[in-house]
Amino acid sequence: YLNPVVRVAITEGFSVFGGLVVAQSTTDVVDPYRIVVESRVANYRGGDSRSRDLGVETDLGVEIRRTLGPTKVRLGLQAGYFWPGRAFDDEQGRAMPPVGLVQARAGVVF
User: Fold this and answer.
1) What does 49-79 look like in DSSP terms, one character per residue?
2) Which residue, among 19, 24, 108, has the nearest Cα to 71 in the 3D structure?
3) What is the pLDDT of residue 6?
4) For the chain, which end, N or C, has fewer CB atoms within 10 Å of the first or last residue's CB respectively?
5) Residue 25's closest CA among 60, 68, 54?
6) Predicted confidence (pLDDT) per residue in 59-69, tens digit
């Protein structure tokens, strides 16, 4: 996969970042369960296992870092959006719908 990420410090303790993931499998995408139970080679959604295109993902986020006496606090908000590749097509060749996620993070070190 290719995953360039850019992080920019806006001020001391506040940064924004963005990234892009472009993913390809080096081998066929095979569901081992289907091989054992159904005796057939397919991907995890029952589709063609020969497609190696895993998809593209974009990521954005912000992070705030503060020191309060001996305690360090980190707060963040991240969002990602994934466009699945052909390796996730189902048995009828239909593409898997895109998936999005927003996540808040908090951490304390003392």
Assistant:
1) TT--EEEEEEEEEEEEEEEETTEEEEEEEEE
2) 108
3) 98
4) C
5) 54
6) 999 999 999 99
pTM for the model: 0.83
DSSP secondary structure code for residue 37 in this structure:
H
Measuring CA to CA, how many Å separate 101 from each of 9, 16, 47, 61, 98? 24, 17, 25, 12, 10
Q: Which residues pair with 20 in a beta bridge?
A: 58
State how far the Cα of 95 lies from the Cα of 83, in Å rounded to an integer: 9
CA–CA separation, 88 vs 110, rounded Å?
Answer: 43
**What does 79-98 look like in DSSP terms, one character per residue?**
EEEEEE-GGG-BTT-PPPPP
b/e sequence 65-81, b meaning 16+ C-beta within 10 Å: eeeeeeeeeeebeeebe
